[in-house]
Design a protein that fits this description.
The complex is a heterodimer of chains A (232) and B (133). By secondary structure, chain A is mainly alpha-helical. Chain A has 7 helices and no strands. In chain B, helix 1 crosses helix 5. Classes of the chains: A mainly alpha (232), B mainly alpha (133).
């Protein structure tokens, strides 16, 4: 059974997810960052759904386990759309958004088909091992795409603070989750680590986005060279 | 094997994203000048030093908290400790890395000094509102 800490993380996560959408509506960038808000809304609904399934069936029930992993895979796909939206914002002046969207959709379909082929071969063991592998692959592809976007931001000398912070926080989120699923896959006994990391990361992402929406205007800028870890 | 490769790459990417995120927070406040009052209180005029960080944090905890600052300060606090650990371990082997971590730590200290400045201004505004009410 979850303790007060787990319940707090759960509750705060849902609260922050809803707060992102509210802050975005209040500050005005709701339409511009529509895919990000769509993801946060979905995430909020999924959190409510998980809580409902948990109270009805319990934490260790197959219903909860199925719901958890499948909803996580759906959320990851929503996060791809959010990433696509960010690509569109960064490349809007280059008129390359459509080509990028097609490329990312193909990549998403490719990852899904690859994961499906793995699952199809071992249907009986799907939840014990392969669903973790699917999530690991999805998060890893998401991480690579975010990394490419970050490299493009540096290359294009993107200086909008809000865009930079949203992309970087998304990178942190994808990294934590990809590392977490890989850890789960490689060391299934390290339950203490891989059970706690996703909810904590899920709480940090909306907090970072709230900060980016509330603290900075769309036109707030900084010097991009200051961001590179290796000085340029 | 695949999981191991993903784990290593993800941890490396995480470090890079986290450092860049913290630098973006610092960069956003680095151009802001400190008010004369804060300069007097903490004894920092233009540039801060890494060793000022803890002292400024103590002043910061004395002021009423602003919700919008809290997360940024926590992230920079974690970044500051990470830099300290890297400076003390890898920095002993690579002097240039130690210089870089010290420079970053000084910028973290300046970031919290700017946050302190904002909190003091916020407290003054709050007090002025109460007095006028």
């Amino acid at each position: 059974m979850p303790g007060p800490l787990e319940y707090s993380i759960w509750f705060l996560g849902a609260l922050f997810e809803a707060a992102v959408v509210v802050c975005s509506l209040l500050r005005g960038p709701f339409r511009r960052y529509f895919t990000l808000n769509l993801y946060m809304s979905m995430s909020f609904l999924v959190t409510l759904g998980r809580y409902f399934v948990f109270t009805k069936h319990g934490l260790t029930s197959p219903e909860y386990t199925y719901f958890y992993y499948y909803s996580d895979a759906i959320l990851t796909i929503c996060l791809y759309f959010a990433l696509m939206g960010l690509y569109a914002i960064v490349f809007e002046e280059l008129q390359a958004a459509l080509r990028l969207r097609v490329f990312m959709m193909l990549l998403l379909i490719g990852t899904t088909l690859f994961s499906y082929s793995v699952v199809h071969q071992s249907e009986a063991r799907m939840l014990t091992h392969y669903i973790v592998e699917i999530s690991q692959n999805l998060y890893f592809v998401g991480l690579v795409l975010t990394y490419v976007l970050w490299a493009a931001l540096l290359k294009l000398h993107e200086s909008r603070v809000r865009v930079i912070q949203i992309v970087l926080s998304l990178g942190v989120y994808f990294s934590i989750n990809a590392a977490n699923y890989a850890l789960h896959n490689a060391y299934p006994n390290l339950r203490v680590i891989w059970e706690y990391l996703p909810p904590v990361a899920g709480m940090l992402l909306p907090v970072a986005w709230i900060y980016a929406f509330m603290r900075f205007d769309e036109e707030a800028r900084l010097t991009p060279a200051r961001l590179a870890v290796v000085p340029r | 094997m695949m999981a191991g490769v993903i784990l290593v790459f993800s941890v490396a990417a995480l470090m890079q994203f986290f450092v860049s995120y913290c630098r973006s927070l610092i960069a956003a406040s680095s151009r802001r000048a400190l008010s004369p009052d804060v300069q007097d209180v903490i004894g920092i005029e233009r540039g801060a030093k890494g060793e000022d960080f803890e002292r400024v944090m103590q002043f910061l905890h004395l002021c009423p908290e602003r919700r919008e600052d809290r997360n940024g300060i926590q992230a920079i606090g974690a970044y500051f400790r990470l830099l300290g650990a890297v400076g003390k371990t890898l920095g002993t082997l690579l002097p240039s890395l130690r210089v870089w971590t010290e420079l970053e730590r000084s910028q973290c200290a300046y970031f919290v000094a700017v946050a302190l400045d904002r909190r003091i201004a916020y407290s003054r505004d709050m007090l002025a509102d109460q007095m006028s009410a």
